[in-house]
Write a structure and sequence with these properties.
heterodimer, A: about 45 residues, mainly alpha, B: mainly alpha, 20 helices, about 75% helix, globular
Chain lengths: ~45, ~375
Amino acid sequence: MDNFTFGVTMMVCGMGGTILTLYIMSLIMTLLGKLFPFKKEEEEE
Amino acid sequence: MEQAILSGLQGLINGFLHLDWRSIIMLLVGFALLWLGIKKDCEPLLLVPIGFGCILVNIPIADLMGKEGFLRVIYDMGVSNELFPLLIFVGIGAMTDFGPVLSNPSTFLLGAAGQFGIFLTLALALALGFPQLDAVSIGIIGACDGPTAIYVSSQYAPHLLGAVSVAAYSYMSLVPVIQPPIMRLLTTDNERNTIMPSMKGTVSKTTKLLFPLVITVIGGLIAPKGLPLLGTIMLGNLMRESGVVARLTRASENEIANIVTLFLGLSIGATMVGSDFLRPQTLIVLCLGFLAICLDTACGVLLGKAMRVASGGRINPLIGAAGISAFPMSARVVQKEGQKYNKRSYLLMHAMGANAGGQVGSVIAAAVMLSVLAGMGIIR
């Protein structure tokens, strides 16, 4: 594979893959926060 | 008899006779690293053993990186097989509180933008004629994450390990010097003056417990080649948040991390042999590493600006600079810069969220990169 193709593939898949993965994770974290909200009792514990 | 005495004396001066200019320069480099660590307090936990390892390996005849040398034994024990960086990650996971990023999950995205320097630098290294896997190892300096940089370069470009590691750790300690000018350059007074609302709500224990498990499974499925990195940091975090294995958590963040840091530092120093290290290539690697961290900061701030527009002006783009992995140093830099422009601006917790996102982001970026490389058939 030539360097140009390699570089472009790494930029597109690497940057795109990183932002997509973290975006999915942020959605899951938001969902978890909604499913298991913080309760007052936890603060007292 | 006389011959025997002369031969004996010869044995005592052999070291001096074999001292060439490369060894002398590398001894000076070792002393400079020790000076940075001891006198300037730049990442002393790493730079002191690295500097001393560099001195040890450049003393001729001793051959400490030879087949039976003790530095070779340590290197083979944990660097060539990538065990040491992974053990460090367990400790990092055990030390890190992901609460701020869980309170505001959108800051995860800043952690992604803070890794773009990796890929931009990789492209630049390719343009400068570096082989593909060398370019990958140079780009990874932009993760601003020592163990990740060591993990990747020890596997795919071991001849660059010394330069990459020294660059990663030195620039990490220079974050307070490198980041502020870039933050000022890319933001307006109005943007820097933005006061962000204090973070509402706290994260439940269940969410904190599920976080490492979910990230491990999802991240592992998306980027299986990086699972060792992701899995170890999340194992440490799970132990921390579960609260039931306090002894293991303490051991991971103290004893294990300390012992491994010593061995890791010595092994990295041991790769800095004059004949391999003193090349124009090393200087280029150091320059590209610097550029990578500048680009990370710039991309983070630029995404912060985009998020500010999308949020109707509620986000201070300075927090984007904290989307790198230098935790919590980068968040403190953001807080300090924010207060310079507006004394009522408290960005620390928001920046901590971005910074924790950067910590996960750097691991994810490396994992994604390795999986893309495996997908292309460049690595197995």
